[in-house]
Design brief:
The protein is mostly beta strands. It contains no helices and eleven strands. The chain is globular, with a radius of gyration of 14 Å.
């Protein structure tokens, strides 16, 4: 059975850091491009970062809203993709989702259930 599970969310003060994890079961995560998305209350879902599969050419992507503060990375041994989030701001508060897309597909194939990130003093 295929699953994507996010973890690492929580409550953090402005300026703090969190490291989100996206762990796959039932498939090899490195065969897929992985995207991180977030959705704040009353707002549309925003794609914030993406990392290609190791076997494909491509660059990591960061939305302007997180560039320079967030870093996406893979640990293929752990079948996990991370999103290191630094210098967090109140406007980063959202539910964060990861998703996996097979190379060449236009849509994401698998989605996680989301993890809540709240940035507040």
């Amino acid at each position: 059975q295929v699953h994507l599970v996010e973890s690492g969310g929580g409550l953090v003060q402005p300026g703090g850091s969190l490291n989100l994890s996206c762990t796959a079961s039932g498939f090899v995560l490195d065969d897929y491009a992985i995207g991180w998305f977030r959705q704040a209350p009353g707002k549309e879902r925003e794609g914030i970062s993406c990392i290609p599969s190791s076997s494909r050419d491509g660059l990591t992507y960061y939305a302007d809203s997180v560039k320079g503060r967030f870093t996406i990375s893979r640990d293929n041994v752990k079948n996990t993709v991370y999103l290191q989030m630094n210098s967090l701001k109140a406007e980063d508060t959202a539910v964060y989702y990861c998703a996996a897309k097979w190379a060449g597909n236009s849509n994401y194939d698998y989605w996680g259930q989301g993890t809540q990130v709240t940035v507040s003093s």
